[in-house]
């Protein structure tokens, strides 16, 4: 039996699962350049440098109302682990609350992952620091009906819990999915360079259903380097979903070596 510890941190009820217990093993004023929305014929990785313009990936995807919840998983390799890195930003448009934001808050002695839904912070979970220049696999899942969430990092269940600030309603559909930067929809619609990813991203997926721990190991972790994930990821599929590369993003072929792309 796996023992869990429950405690309250900053208003959140958090359950900590012992590490390894379930493991299998700057504001933009100019219009940036926009590259092709066609996906390459190979499995790619995307490089975001955040120099002259805010760089990000804008997906051409039809996002349904997330009535049951969501799951997102991806590989991330940061050049600078001491800055905030917004991996996923989903919003409806100008003058609307950003409805789904997942970011890594770096720096200091206690880095963390933060998830915000419908303007409410669901969790701010301390984690092992990401290692600069090294690939890490991250998965987050959340269920609408129960407000239950689980965070996985590199095949370990980092924590699971329930927000005391209840969201308990669906994330609305019809918005835009941006990967690699925070959409400043309440200001001017631009992406925020200070909250953007500086590094590499590959195998990014977004699914309209929550998953449990067993499903994570069966459908995500064991297939973390598979390019055949379209059936499970119905919103964003890294290999097949068309996108725009904004701000001079470079997309190149990824290595077939899992975890060393």
TrEMBL record:
PANTHER family in alphabetical order: B6, PENTRAXIN
Leader sequence segment: 1-23
Pfam families, per the entry: Laminin_G_3
Source organism of the structure: Meganyctiphanes norvegica (Northern krill)
Ranges where the Pentraxin (PTX) domain occurs: 42-258
Cofactor: Ca(2+)
PROSITE patterns associated with the record: PTX_2
InterPro entries registered for this protein in UniProt: ConA-like_dom_sf, Neuronal_Pentraxin_Related, PTX_dom
Protein name listed in UniProt: Pentraxin (PTX) domain-containing protein
SUPFAM superfamilies named among the record's database cross-references: Concanavalin A-like lectins/glucanases
UniProt KW Metal-binding keyword: yes
Keywords: Calcium, Disulfide bond, Glycoprotein, Metal-binding, Signal
Tree of life domain: Eukaryota
GO MF term set: metal ion binding
Keyword Glycoprotein: yes
């Amino acid at each position: 039996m796996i023992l869990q510890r429950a405690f309250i941190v900053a208003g959140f009820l958090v359950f900590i699962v012992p590490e390894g217990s379930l493991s299998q093993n700057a504001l933009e004023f100019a219009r940036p350049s926009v590259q092709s929305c066609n996906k390459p014929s190979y499995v790619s990785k995307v490089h975001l440098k955040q120099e002259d313009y805010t760089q990000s990936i804008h997906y051409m995807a039809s996002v349904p109302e997330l009535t049951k919840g969501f799951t997102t998983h991806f590989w991330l390799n940061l050049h600078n682990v001491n800055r905030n890195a917004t991996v996923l930003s989903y919003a409806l448009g100008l003058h609307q609350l950003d409805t789904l934001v997942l970011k890594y808050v770096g720096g200091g002695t206690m880095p963390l992952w933060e998830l915000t839904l419908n303007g409410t912070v669901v969790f701010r979970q301390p984690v092992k620091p990401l290692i600069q220049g090294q690939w890490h696999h991250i998965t987050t899942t959340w269920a609408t009906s129960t407000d239950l969430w689980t965070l996985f990092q590199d095949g370990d269940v980092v924590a699971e819990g329930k927000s005391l600030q209840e969201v308990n309603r669906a994330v609305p559909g019809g918005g835009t999915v941006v990967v690699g930067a925070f959409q400043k929809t309440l200001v001017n619609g631009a992406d925020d360079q200070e909250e953007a990813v500086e590094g590499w991203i590959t195998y990014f997926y977004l699914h309209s259903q929550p998953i449990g721990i067993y499903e994570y190991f069966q459908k995500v972790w064991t297939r973390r380097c598979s390019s055949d994930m379209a059936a499970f990821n119905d919103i964003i599929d890294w290999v097949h979903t068309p996108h725009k590369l904004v701000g001079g993003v470079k997309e190149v072929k990824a290595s077939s070596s899992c975890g060393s792309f």
